[in-house]
Amino acid sequence: MKLSNSNNRLEVANNSLGTTSFFNIFNMSEVDTKPIEPVQVALFLFGDKDEQRKSRPTSSDKERENEKELEGLSKDLANYKQALLKLDYYQKTADELSNLLKI
Prior knowledge:
alpha+beta
């Protein structure tokens, strides 16, 4: 962007549209550049949306949590099945040994 001031005109070259624009300086109004204090008040009253989004889990976060929980439960189930098979094996072994002692 190129700015030049001549003959009470402000020339802005290569603006966002790729064209050159001319502005009459005397027709331009003053822009208020004071710090904006109401923004802090608005954030206090309405809260920061980013903070609210972070505190609330999104549906994808819930899905990930559910998947992790499901994986954990599946592992637990596999361990319980294996323990049950071992118990069944040991029960059969104990029954066989008991029968041998009776003879």
